[in-house]
């Protein structure tokens, strides 16, 4: 394992220029300009503060590593859309063509092939699809501080307009709702008897997280008396700092 400080230096002096060189041709293409326009002009819909009157997009990413700040990339996005009654009404699974070669251990972990990734659309097209899919909803991820941070770092790398979506961290929700259970996804699935699908597949993980989110939201509302998005965010901020 290469020390993190050496990875940072390698990215700054060797890989970052390569990324920019390979991304630059996209910057004047129609899909890129359309995405910029979409992000700048699509107004945020006023969402209800009531947690039970919002639609949610529960999503998961498969990536080449944990640090987008040093060049790690998104390989796939899986997402499910939930209506105000907590029902899954739509789903998406999008592969993303990476800029740099993918390590063999990541391919093995995700069961993705170089061929399928090479044939996939760019981050520009994949992210545009995700934005349209999740429009006028609140994002949920486990943990959101990883997945949302990764998306925002990719947006910055691609020099797109700022991206600051409304989101809920289901891992922090679990810390509040079931403090006696490990807050990793697998132990939580077992605790709530949620059917386990093949892991490290973005859509499967999104589906399982959606089922978990429903259970956690019920506890948050019924046992903790938290019914508003603003109230939940205040409590989750406490969990994050504790």
Automatic annotation (TrEMBL):
All residue ranges annotated as the Exonuclease domain in the record: 55-222
Tell me where on the tree of life, at the top rank, the source sits: Bacteria
Pull one GO CC term from this UniProt entry.
Answer: cytosol
InterPro entries in UniProt: DnaQ, Ribonucl_H, RNaseH-like_sf, RNaseH_sf
Asked if the keyword Hydrolase belongs to this entry, the reply reads yes
Give the GO terms filed under biological process for this record: DNA replication proofreading
Query: What are the record keywords, sorted?
Result: Exonuclease, Hydrolase, Nuclease
Pfam families, A to Z: RNase_T
- In the UniProt record, does the keyword Nuclease occur? yes
- Extract the GO molecular function terms from the UniProt entry: 3'-5' exonuclease activity; DNA binding; DNA-directed DNA polymerase activity
Q: Which residues form a coiled coil?
A: none
Task: Spell out the protein name for this chain.
Answer: DNA polymerase-3 subunit epsilon
């Amino acid at each position: 394992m290469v020390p993190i400080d050496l990875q940072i230096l390698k990215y700054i002096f060797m890989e970052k220029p390569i990324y920019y060189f390979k991304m630059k041709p996209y910057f004047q293409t129609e899909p890129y300009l359309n995405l910029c326009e979409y992000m700048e002009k699509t107004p945020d819909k006023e969402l209800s503060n009531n947690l039970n009157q919002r639609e949610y997009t529960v999503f998961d990413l498969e990536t080449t590593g944990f640090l987008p700040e040093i060049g790690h990339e998104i390989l796939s996005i899986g997402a499910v859309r939930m209506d105000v009654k907590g029902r899954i009404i739509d789903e998406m699974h999008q592969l993303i063509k990476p800029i740099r070669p993918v390590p063999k251990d990541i391919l093995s972990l995700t069961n993705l092939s170089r061929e399928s990734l090479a044939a996939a659309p760019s981050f520009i097209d994949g992210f545009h699809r995700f934005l349209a899919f999740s429009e006028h909803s609140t994002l949920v991820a486990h943990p959101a501080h990883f997945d949302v941070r990764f998306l925002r770092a990719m947006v910055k790398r691609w020099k797109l307009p700022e991206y600051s979506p409304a989101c809920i961290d289901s891992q922090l929700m679990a810390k509040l709702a079931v403090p006696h259970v490990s807050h990793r996804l697998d132990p939580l699935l077992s605790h709530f008897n949620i059917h386990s699908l093949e892991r490290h597949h973005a859509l499967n993980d999104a589906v399982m997280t959606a089922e978990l989110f429903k259970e956690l939201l019920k506890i948050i509302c019924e046992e903790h008396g938290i019914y508003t998005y603003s109230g939940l965010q205040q409590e989750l901020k406490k969990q994050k700092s504790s």
